[in-house]
Amino acid sequence: FFNSILYLHTQPPLFNIFRGLVFNIVPGDAAAAFHAVYVVLGIILSVILFSLMRLFGVQGKISTMLTIFFIISPACVFFENVLFYPYIVAVTLCAASLALFLYIRDDRTVYAAVFFFLLSILVLTRSIFHIGWFLVCAVILFMLRRNEWKKLTAAAAIPFLLVMALFIKNAVLFGSFSSSSWSGMSMAK
Q: Could you give the C-alpha distances from 183 to 9, 59, 180, in angstroms and in order?
């Protein structure tokens, strides 16, 4: 398991780590475990979507209706039942948005740390989220909160180092400073 993750270079490793852990923890009934995880992700996504709308001032009834319409939409139901990363990415993006909103509103470093951690999860899950994307998000937040650069640096340090470790590992082992050696094919698509 460890070697397959270490030498994986065609895509970022986090989704495969998740799958490998589930297969190793629940070898006899992995399908049920995956389904349970995705159902929980659906509940989390519902709560986050509703919370974001309420935080942005959308009325409670409208927030409830829009959340329900989204959750029962065919695309959402489909991706909740397919063992693939788009649903995980959607939940993580929404959670990162919520963490960013809460950080900007409440000015608590823990929300910034959660935001950067969620960004690192995205980079480590899907190759379209590149280290450059992580850095652009960080720079924008640093520009918005210039006076808090020390707190933001502390919040971003570990997530950035995790992402950088993957990029350095791929550069050393495979000659590709990226999260995926298939970047060319991804760009072609």
A: 10, 42, 6
